[in-house]
Amino acid sequence: MTPNSPKPRSARELADWVRDARRATEALVADLSGEQLMGPRLAIVNPLLWEIGHIAWFQERWVLRHANRRSPIRADGDALYDSANVPHDTRWDLPLPSRGETLAYVTMVRDQVLERLEGRTPTGEECYFILLSVFHEDMHAEAFTMTRQILGFPAARLQEHKALGPTAGPLAGDAEVPGGTFLLGSPPDEPFVFDNEKWVHPVEVEPFAIARAPVTQAEFAAFVDDGGYRRHAYWSEAGRRWRESESAEHPVYWRRAESCGWQRREFDQWVPVEPHLPIVNVNWFEAEAYCRWAGRRLPTEAEWEVAASTEPDPRGFSPHKRRFPWGDDPPTPGRANLDWHAGGRLDVGALPSGDSAFGCRQMIGNVWEWTSSDFLPYPGFAADPYKEYSQPWFGTHKVLRGGCWTTRARLLRNTWRNFYEPHRRDVWAGFRTCAKR
Question: What's the pTM value of the predicted model, to 2 decimals?
Answer without folding.
Answer: 0.96
